[in-house]
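Appendix C reproduces, verbatim, an entry submitted by the partner laboratory led by Prof. M.T., so that reviewers can inspect both the input and the predicted structure.
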Amino acid sequence: MNIKRRDFIRNSFILTGGFCLPSSLAALGFNTPGQLLRIRKDVNTLGPADPDLLAYRNAVEVMKARPASDPTSWAFQATIHNQFCPHQNWFFLPWHRAYILKFEEICRQASGVPSFNLPYWDWTLNPTIPQPFKDTSSPLYESSRRAAANGNGSALAEFVGQNAINSILNTSPFQDFASAKTSIQKKRVASGRLEGGPHNHIHNFVGGKMADAKTAALDPLFWLHHANIDRLWNAWNILGHLNSVDTVYTNHLFQANFYGADGLPVDFTVSSLSSVAALGYTYEGQSAPVAPARTVPGTFALLDNSSIKSNEVARLQKFQSASLGVEGFSQLFEKAFVSPTSRWKPKSRCVTAIISGVPTNEEDFYVRVFINGKHITKDTPITDPHYLGSFSFFASNHDHGDGEMMEHHEKQRLYFSFDITSKLKELYGVGRKTSSQKKAMDRINFQLLTIPYIDGGKAEFLDAQVEIVVTQQA
């Protein structure tokens, strides 16, 4: 087990605390006239002459005309993303919340519209690029995007469809939802469901500048995409799911990463970014849950000797699947999920599958994951009962800034985590098992299927392994 993997297992599952948005503004202290929350709206509900849409067009045009040395310019704001943004760790969500918050402020100043609120792109309801961003005469248009995306192409339902989003919103441990623990802002550890799924997929679906972390923020769609990611984090909190209160997370300081409309640097601690209401805004239609709540409170920690890892390595080519087996699963199952009364304990135990591997620099593919599937092919539907989820790649060529002296091969290693608790319940049921049942379930198999985004695209996933980690509510 290498250092990064060991640190991930020991450190990534300290999960607790959080914020649940009250329905009453008075409960938040916003009961004074003039202090109501700003509301970010779905861009697809805005008409061509909507003030927010017009203000955004004007702001982008003004910012693009400013010199790159100006912190409020389009070029400078995009550079911030490459210099400071965290990916594949738990600072991903709060960092981007602060980033778009200050960008929104700059847009108000640049457009001359102090009431401007950044719209969001709800790619679940509307998986095609919003029409105002397809107008070739508009500053919102970006010619580098995939032709299909700038045309009538749609993002894939397996990443952004309502079933996929509901599954993500029902992921309870913070780090399985939001990405894994580290104390280093730009150290890559493991992508959670939200980042490794719809976030990465939309970057790749749009393509062009959006598909590269160094240039992604140069596309005006970037900001609306991340507003939607922020909205889903807020929705997850509304459902009662809990952010981490580990001080490694809450006390982290984003120092001089961002700039206000005055061009001066601004600092944020992660703790100051946990509540959108405390920051003065909310999202249209978020007064009620958007998926069935499944709240898991409290602290989770790794159970002793409750981690098993496949000894196998998979090398995948496009449209081909390979199976990764994990031996000794029946013993782990008994220890983790069966009480003396033979009852399943999903609220006190969480099982995470961590899929690791080294992708090539070519990110033009994604991976579907199945558990105990047979004869998995590109035609196997995602409605198959063995389908677990999908993940996509983004920022593997990103400037890491993690301060570690590592070989290039190691720096390219990516991890994707899946909460498989409910899937195991579906596949294996509850209660103790007979000896023959234990023998049959002693090996659990994960099938990984790589699918290129474009015909002829290269798809190779090297040194893939799977590890199963069990955590327990303290």
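The CA atoms of residues 64 and 74 lie 5 Å apart. Additional entries are available on request from the coordinating office.
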